[in-house]
Write a structure and sequence with these properties.
Helix 8 packs across helix 12 (272-283). The strands form 3 sheets. Strands 3-2-1-9-10-11 form a 6-stranded parallel sheet, with helices on both faces. The chain has a 3-stranded antiparallel sheet with strand order 5-4-8, with helices on one face. It has a two-stranded antiparallel sheet with strand order 6-7. The two termini are 33 Å apart. Helix content is 42%, strand content 16%. With 288 residues, the protein is an alpha/beta fold. The protein binds zinc ion.
């Protein structure tokens, strides 16, 4: 793209179209991937280098994201696996969701059928920002919930009582990991990991069923997809399903991979907070 003038005009047009799509919709579905968290200051795990910059101790152990994010890591090196997840749990607990969360919530509240969320993020930031927990589907689970590592049962419980003490330099948990109240064995986050046949999916399955029911009553849904890449495509698949099966329209905000499936969809090549703030300007104060 050398013609920056054209690009600026195109972006302005795209923003206007996005605002119109939101005004004309009866329901808003926010679909979010890892890019949604970056403007809240959360690390981007993309690529080995990005991951190891955030967790240098795992570089020395030659463990990439795929190796540490697995039940096997909890079996083989519990202190390291819990060092990684404990650090993330602490980080997400102290993170404040950026302004974009607020904007999305306000727009959704203006629409007759309201708003719902589909996210691959396990960080709990939508709940923290005040979204209705009954209409959030966390397709990969939540770090704020625990389950048995074995698993000996289907129980899922909140992680609130677990306060990880992490030696960040060495990515190691200093205190005891949480335990399963049924069998006394080690507990793990209720997150779908890699090579994970032990994930207890009841909680996410319940969320999915509620979201499906809600979606079946939406007449003109608009999807605002934020920061969802192609590497782990669950979020994109869901966005596309809404436009194909529910006659929805798509606004895709992504700085690197912003191609859209049809010419009726809107593409914004930028970060989450910037894209959402520009749409807010176009919508004007009466819509916020
Ligand atoms: Zn157990």
């Amino acid at each position: 793209m050398h013609d920056t003038k054209h690009q600026v005009v195109d972006t302005r047009v795209a923003i206007e179209v996005a605002a119109t799509l939101i005004e004309q919709a009866d329901a808003l579905i926010v679909t979010a991937g890892a890019g949604m968290g970056i403007d809240s200051g959360l690390p981007d795990f993309r690529g080995k280098e990005g991951f190891w910059r955030a967790y240098p101790a795992l570089r020395s152990a030659s463990l990439d994201f795929y190796s540490i994010a697995s039940p096997e890591a909890f079996q083989a090196s519990p202190e390291l696996a819990w060092g990684f997840y404990g650090h993330r749990l602490n980080l997400y607990r102290r993170t404040t969701p950026h302004i974009g969360f607020d904007l999305l919530q306000r727009w959704g509240e203006r629409l007759p059928h309201g708003l719902a969320v589909f996210t691959s993020n396990v960080d709990g930031q939508f709940q923290k920002a005040g979204f209705d927990p009954a209409l959030i589907y966390e397709c990969h689970g939540s770090i704020h919930h625990l389950q048995c590592l074995e698993p000996c049962c289907e129980d899922i419980w909140r992680a609130d009582d677990f306060l990880p003490d992490v030696d960040e330099q060495n990515c190691r948990l200093r205190n005891l990991p949480p335990v399963c109240p049924r069998c006394g064995g080690m507990a793990r986050p209720n997150i779908l990991m890699f090579n994970d046949s032990g994930w207890v999916e009841q909680r996410s399955a319940g969320q999915e069923a509620r979201l499906d029911r809600w979606l079946s009553n939406a007449k003109r849904p608009v999807v605002i997809e934020v920061g969802a890449g192609t590497t782990i495509p669950s979020v994109r698949h869901f966005s596309h399903l809404v436009i194909q099966q529910h006659g929805g329209r798509l606004i895709r905000i992504n700085p690197n991979e912003c191609g859209v499936p049809t010419p009726r969809d809107v593409s914004l090549a930028m970060g989450a907070a910037e894209g959402l703030a520009l749409i807010a300007e176009a919508l004007g104060p009466q819509f916020g």
